[in-house]
Amino acid sequence: MAEISAAVVVKLRKMSGQGMMDCKKALEESNGNLEEAMTILRKKGLATLAKRADRETTEGKVICVASPDGKEAAMATLCCETDFVAKSDAFLVVADAMKDYLPACKAADGVENFLNTAKNGKKFSEVVTESVSKTGEKTEVGNYARLTLKDTGSIATYVHFNGKIGVMVEIETSSQAVADNEQFKLIAKDIAMHIAAINPLSLDSSGIPADVVEREKAIAADQVKNKPANIIDKIVEGKIRKFFADNCLLAQGFVKDEKIPVEKVLADAATAAGGTAKIKTFVRFAIG
Description:
Blueprint: H1 6-16, H2 20-29, H3 34-51, E1 59-66, E2 72-80, H4 83-86, H5 89-104, H6 111-115, E3 118-119, E4 122-123, H7 124-135, E5 139-148, E6 153-159, E7 165-173, H8 176-180, H9 182-198, H10 210-223, H11 229-247, E8 253-254, E9 257-261, H12 262-272, E10 277-286
Antiparallel strand pairs: 1-2, 2-5, 3-4, 6-7, 7-10, 8-9
Helix pairs in contact: 1-2, 1-3, 2-3, 3-7, 5-7, 9-12, 10-11
């Protein structure tokens, strides 16, 4: 076995971010070959992932990156098992790397697409594996999505201060001047914040699955089954309208003024900016 010098161990430690003992063991196993030692350390990370595959990852961070012109935005969740690891240097390095990989992935969705995104010859999946070999804890990308706006408008983004909830909102406007209006931008950001706080199920009633609506109707009917038959349908209809108002973004009372629906808040802001606007879609990710 080749003698492993302290200088080589230190070099591998700088390359990998691993502990001195792990680096020394990997070098001993590879007979001093740095490239093979790096491979050994990566395999260690993969082995840890396999061993802890059934563990829950309820901590972590939401990372969201938007293009300077507001026409593109991508968001993903980086999840781990404990808050301790979520605050560790090894985890934060991966979170920072995610900010560079997100713009590079052009897929609209799909975690595997993001994990296979490469920069400088390294896939993001390899970055995650290296982190696992340092922390000894399961780390994974939980969600990934990308929005691209081709027409006039902008994509508003918001990440909650705890880093565990993130939102992207695609808003189409009648002109780019409306989207670029500073007051309109503030309202768009507030709507993203509203989505983070209230968690709507859908943009409008058409997005609520039929089985969910039928379930709510059945619950409502059961609640008033002792009422006269001729008014049960009207009561159920009213309860469903309330369900839609509570769970559909456009109908929800705005988080900053519950008396005004989100749809009107957006419309008023667009009118003030000299045009019209409508929300095309939104994405909300939450960890835990």
